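Hi Y.,

Following your request, here is the sequence exactly as I used it, all 353 residues.
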Amino acid sequence: MNQHSRFNLPICLAVEEDAFCRSDEIIGSYLPEVIGQKTLIVSEQFLINTYKCKITEISRDFGGAEIYPMNCADFDEAVAIAKKVCIEDIKVIIGFGGGRVLDTAKYAAHISKAVYICMPTSLSNDSLASPFAVLEAVGNARKTFACKIPTAILVDTDMIAKAPKGQTLSGIGDTLSKHTALFDWKLSAKKTGTHIEDFAYAISRMSFDSVCHCDEKDIKSRVFIRILSRALVMGGLAMEIAGSSRPCSGSEHLFAHAIEEYYPEIKISHGMAVALGSIPSCIFQGQDASSLIEITNAYGISTDPVSYGITKDMFADIWQKARTVRTGRITILDEVKYDKVQLDEIYDRLVRK
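Below is the corresponding structure, written out as tokens. Let me know if you'd prefer a different format.
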């Protein structure tokens, strides 16, 4: 993407206490033309049940918006929602939920050209503002689709404070992984002779730094929720400006993709997987991984593979497969030889004694 290319930015980013209770007021101050338009709220049934009062109130604020419980986070579901939106002349889609819901609603809005308002119930990864949607395509295989970023993002700090701790830790993990992703992006640009978007690089680095050097380590505090919200949104904007996921995704993400594709029985969130992958990536890159280990420990993110049921042989095999999951994406894995002895040593270093 050259410097003359255009990119989209959200018109509204509100990170406030009780933001969902005042969603119409907040959106109305930025996008008055949206209020009163036919609206569809996309969520999952268990979230609709869990947050019944909150979601009913949002529906009322948007003129009795229909609440749509999606069946699954796959391509067909996103297309089915888009079809409904087009046929019924719906103008606004609100995604209310975690990453699965937000990606499905975002892609449905992209296809149907509806205004998309993102209302996350957790901060588990940077998909809330990214120009991509990760959806199940065939079987368990997930595919990344390009799409338009949200028109508005509302983060309710009270909602996030009540979200399961693991989901917030996952969002921290996704942010910390930018350290190795940016190294891989520079390496790729050097090898291919392509240009790095300096502004996208700087925003992604700011995203990492804001969480890495944050004095507030209480992940339930409003101060930290604001910092993490903005960090995840910055990651999404960096991808939008770069025109690719390179500012936020490198060899550590290939490790996470290899787990998803070849070891679906391993119960680990995306953010935790990339946090775990970023430490070996850091070592492969010749960087000192000790500061990353310190940060993950400070936030209580486990980078012990045993805690996820990953054995030494599985760990080595995942890294072997990581080299092949996204052909054409140049990372440090193209530079270093596969070394089982080194991987066993890294594994031993990560295991908590």
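The chain is about 50% helix and 10% strand.

Thanks again,
Q.
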